C-alpha cells in the first residue's frame, strides 16, 4: 500500500508589527498570493489531501486557508501546537499518528527542512530543496500500510516546488 505526504512550509509572513508575538504573525501580501498559487498547483497535479495537520500558528493556518479553496475537497485541518518550532523527530511522531492516505502537513523551519531531508531516500534535484524557503512544498510517497511504519529514508520524492516557480 502507498501513503502520500505533502509537506509545506508556511508562505511569507508579515513583520509589519515587531511587537506581535511570533505565533501570531499573519501572512503578508506575497504570502497570501503564494499560498493561493500552491493550492492551484496541488489541484492541477491531483495532490488532494484527505487529512491536514497544521501548526496552530496564525501564518500556517492562513496558508492552509488560502490553499484549500483550490482543492476539490478540503478537509478541516487538525491544529496542533506540536508542529510549532518542532524538530524533525517531533514531526515524525506527529505523522505516525496520521490516519489519511494523503496527508498534508504545514509547519515551520528549521524543523520542516530537516524533516524533509531525513524522510526522502534521494533528495529532489531542485537546488531550493536544500534551503526549503517559505512555501516550499515536497510531495513524497511511502510504501507502507500505516503511518506508524514511516521512518527516515523511506520516502520517494515525487515532486517539489517553491512559489517563485509558480509566478505568472
Could you walk me through the main structural features you see in this protein, from its secondary elements to its overall organization?
It is built from 5 helices and 6 strands, in the order βαβαβαβααββ. The protein has a single domain (about 5-15, about 20-165), classed as 3-Layer(aba) Sandwich (Rossmann fold), CATH 3.40.50.1240. The chain has about 170 residues and is α/β, with parallel strands linked by helices. The model has no long low-confidence stretch (mean pLDDT about 95). Helix 1 (about 30-45) packs across helix 2 (about 60-65) and helix 3 (about 90-95) packs across helix 4 (about 110-120). It is globular and about 45 Å long. It has a 6-stranded mixed β-sheet, with helices on both faces.
Low-confidence stretches: none
CATH topology: Rossmann fold
CATH architecture: 3-Layer(aba) Sandwich
What structural class do you assign from the helix and strand content? alpha/beta
Strand order of the largest sheet: 3-2-4-1-5-6
How many strands?
6
Tell me the overall shape.
Answer: globular
Overall pLDDT = 96
What's the domain count?
1
CATH superfamily: Phosphoglycerate mutase-like
How many helical elements? Answer: 5
Radius of gyration: 15 Å
CATH class: Alpha Beta
The profile of the biggest β sheet is: 6 strands, mixed
Order of H and E elements: EHEHEHEHHEE
Organism: Acidimangrovimonas pyrenivorans
Protein name: SixA phosphatase family protein
InterPro entries: His_Pase_superF_clade-1 (IPR013078), His_PPase_superfam (IPR029033)
Amino acid at each position: 500500500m502507498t501513503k502520500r505526504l505533502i509537506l509545506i512550509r508556511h508562505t511569507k509572513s508579515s513583520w509589519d508589527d515587531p511587537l506581535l508575538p511570533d505565533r501570531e504573525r499573519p501572512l503578508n501580501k506575497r504570502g497570501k498570493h503564494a499560498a493561493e498559487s500552491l493550492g492551484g498547483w496541488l489541484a492541477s497535479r491531483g495532490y488532494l489531501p484527505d487529512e491536514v495537520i497544521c501548526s496552530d500558528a496564525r501564518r500556517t493556518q492562513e496558508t492552509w486557508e488560502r490553499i484549500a479553496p483550490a482543492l476539490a475537497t478540503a478537509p478541516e485541518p487538525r491544529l496542533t501546537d506540536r508542529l510549532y518550532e518542532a524538530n524533525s523527530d517531533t514531526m515524525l511522531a506527529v505523522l505516525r499518528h496520521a490516519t489519511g492516505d494523503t496527508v498534508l502537513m504545514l509547519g515551520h523551519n528549521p524543523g520542516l527542512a530537516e524533516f524533509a531531508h531525513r524522510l526522502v531516500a534521494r533528495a529532489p534535484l531542485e537546488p531550493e530543496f536544500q534551503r526549503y524557503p517559505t512555501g516550499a512544498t515536497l510531495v513524497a510517497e511511502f510504501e507502507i500500510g500505516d503511518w506508524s511504519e514511516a521512518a527516515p529514508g523511506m520516502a520517494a520524492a515525487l515532486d517539489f516546488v517553491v512559489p517563485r516557480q509558480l509566478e505568472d
